[in-house]
Amino acid sequence: MAATLYPPARYRPVRNTSGPMVQPTRGLIPHVQVGTGSLFGWFDNSASQVSSHLWLSRTGELEQYVPCDQRAWAQAAGNPYWISCECEGYPAEDYTPIQVTRLAELFRWGMQEFGWKAEITDSPNGYGIGTHRMGGASWGGHDCPGDIRANRRGDILSLATSQRTFAADPRDRYAGRPTVREGSTGPDVTELQNALNIVFGHEAPTGDPNRLTPDGTYGPRTTARVASLQRYASPWFGRIPDDGICGSTTWRKLGWILTGLNRTI
Ligand SMILES: [Zn+2]
Prior knowledge:
The structure is a single chain. The chain is of the alpha/beta class. It folds into 2 domains: 10-160, Peptidoglycan recognition protein-like (Lysozyme-like, 3-Layer(aba) Sandwich); 170-260, Orthogonal Bundle (Muramoyl-pentapeptide Carboxypeptidase, domain 1), CATH 1.10.101.10. 27% of the residues lie in helices and 11% in strands. It is built from 7 helices and 8 strands, in the order βββαββββαβααααα. The strands form 2 sheets. A 6-stranded mixed beta sheet has the order 1-5-4-7-3-8, covered by helices on one side. A two-stranded antiparallel ribbon has the order 2-6. α5 (187-199) packs across α7. The two termini are 28 Å apart. It binds zinc ion (ZN). The site of zinc ion has 4 residues, from loops.
């Protein structure tokens, strides 16, 4: 028997579910929420007629609403075949780095539990990581999740199939990252900037002058924001020297604060 509950998720069963899944399931459909906040109330409301198996917040929190062997009401004719995960945010907004990691973890688990194929598909008859929109009219005729998120499936799949082991404690997600400082460039800097925007509440993609542009270039504004993080008296790390350089202790503090957001554990 394959597992019916995804262990990292908080299980909050809802009433909008019916019938068993067709086994084996074909793969994962990451949906875009077009909004924020837990969907438990909406999916437990029989008037809404919608649900998903899972929900993933921008900060990496997971809730499970429907067991994986039961149908959620997420993509109409696709419901019996695909596990659905609603992802917080909007179609014009990229996933947060934590969401990409969480989806990769989920997909890796699905490959082990359900035998999901390590593939990207744009067909309802395919396998692997699909999209809601690939189902067309019979799946409700939605554009979900939009181009930005649909195009992230390659990153999710490559992370899921990489040799990288995910931290046993999700708070240690940045363990082993290189020291980055003013003048540094690259994907680690982009991830740092995205994480700082989440921690300081500036993740909205437009209209916020305090948002760091996640461009992968560590400039004076990134230095200043790292120094703010270092000065912040967090429960676990307190204040650390505010040199504006993101080394191992600062990475660790960032991971713990980020994962502590909105979590009940
Ligand atoms: Zn959708």
